Each structure stands twice: as structure tokens, then as C-alpha cells.
Amino acid sequence: MIFFEIIKAILYGILQGITEWLPISSTGHMIILERILPFSLSDDFFNMFKVVIQFGSILAILVLYRKKLNPFRIRTVNGQKERFVSKKTLRLWLMVLIGAVPAGVVGLLLDDIIDTFLSGVLVVAFTLIFYGVAFIVVERRNEGKEFRVNSVYEIDPKTALRIGCFQVLALIPGTSRSGSTILGASLLGVSRTAAAEFSFFLAIPVMFGASFLKLIKYASSFLFSEIVVLFFGMAVAFLVSLVAVRFLIGFVRRHSFESFGWYRIGLGILLLLLYLIF
User: Fold this and answer.
1) CA quadruple 213, 218, 224, 230: dihedral positive or negative?
2) Contact between 263 and 24 (Cβ < 8 Å)
3) What is the pLDDT of residues 101-116, one digit of tens each?
4) Taking a C-beta distance cutoff of 8 angstroms, is the pair 198, 92 a contact?
5) How far apart are CA 170 and CA 167, in angstroms?
């Protein structure tokens, strides 16, 4: 019944909204939920759903950071309001587009290969554990270190491109898109808050592009019931993302990412156990 599929979509939306922005891999969590609560709809629908549901998360970023991301501003000069274009914001968008290029190019070229050969449970489990260890090592190395970049506005083209290259790693399921970009930015001397924010902004073109490609690929086979299920999933992902993003920014201002590293290791081990048992 469609009612039960909507309930499942809501649960998936909650999980997506939380795990997309925290560096803990939304894919790994989706695999566990899929084992516990699989959709009764087609495999093609689920392959589309778990990507396009991210569109709700993107909208949350656009809402939360609408002032920082909108270059068209209004200021008061001599008591008069006038419109102007923020060059600082336009430059930020340019850095985001530069950073999005590597993942966009590689994703287009290898999308089918990744879906076919790198989407297994073992791959996800090992990447969860590997990058969990990497987070712990990098955070301990950075302890007490002065960062050379403390704001997203200070990121230059070279740094943006390098962070974008780290984002390519996230094409391997289980890596975590936010995890790879935050880790890469940290290695390049970007502060935790700036790394997290730039990771959010990089997601806009990359996730929008991935969602658009999946929609084109599967749109012709959509049923009305599947559209309804997808809508609920995206709506819930949007609402939960609003909370998750605020939580992460507040958390990293006071704590390191090391706890996320330990969480990833634990989740990776759990996936390995599920693989061996089932």
C-alpha cells in the first residue's frame, strides 16, 4: 500500500537529512535501513530515490545560507536604499564552481561503473572505516594548529580546486561527500567551520547535477505513486537538513571531527557484521 511506502520515505528522509551533512556517509546508513525496511517498489525507483532525495537537502542549504549565497543585496546610503551586487559573494560562487568541476567531470564519466562495481556493502564498510581512521589522524595532527584559511571568502582558486579533487573520492560509496571535502580542506589548512560551510556550498552544483541526471535516466518509468513517495522523502530531508546543518556548525565551533571518525569506524564494523550474517 502507498501509505506504508510513504512512511518508509519519511524515515529515509530523516536519515538522509541527518547523514548527508554530517561526515558519516549517508550511503552507509541507507544500506542498513534498506536491509531493515526495504521499499516494495522497483529497484530502479530506489536507485533513483536515494539520489534525488538529496534535492531536499540542497534546498535546506539555499534557505539557511540565502544571505551569504545571494549576491544581489540592498544597502542604505545617505538614507536611501540601493541595490548592489556583492563581488565577495560572486567570488565565492566562482570558487564553488571551480571546486565542483572535478567531481562533475569524473561523475559523468564513471557514473555507471561506480553504480555497477563500487556500490557493494564491503566497499562501503571499508571506506567508512578507512576515512574514519583518517579523520582521527588528521584531527590529532591539527590539534592546536593555526589555520591559514578561516572563512569561506578566503578560499582561493587553487585551494578550491584541490578541495574539489578530494570531493571526487566521495563518488565511491561510503566515503561521504561532506566527509571527503571537510577532510581535504582540513589537510589544506582550512578551519573546521570554513571547511564545513564550503562543503555545504560545493554540494549545491554536485548534488543538483546528480539528481538531475537520475531524473532524466528514470523519469520515463515513474508511476504517480512513486512521485508521491519521492515528494515526501525530499520534503522530510529538507526539514531535517535545516536542523542537521545548524547542529554541525555549532558542534565544530567547539569540538573536533574526531568523534565522527570513531562513529564511522563503528558503523563500518556493523556493516561488515551484517554482510557476514546475512
Assistant:
1) negative
2) yes
3) 998 888 878 777 777 7
4) no
5) 5
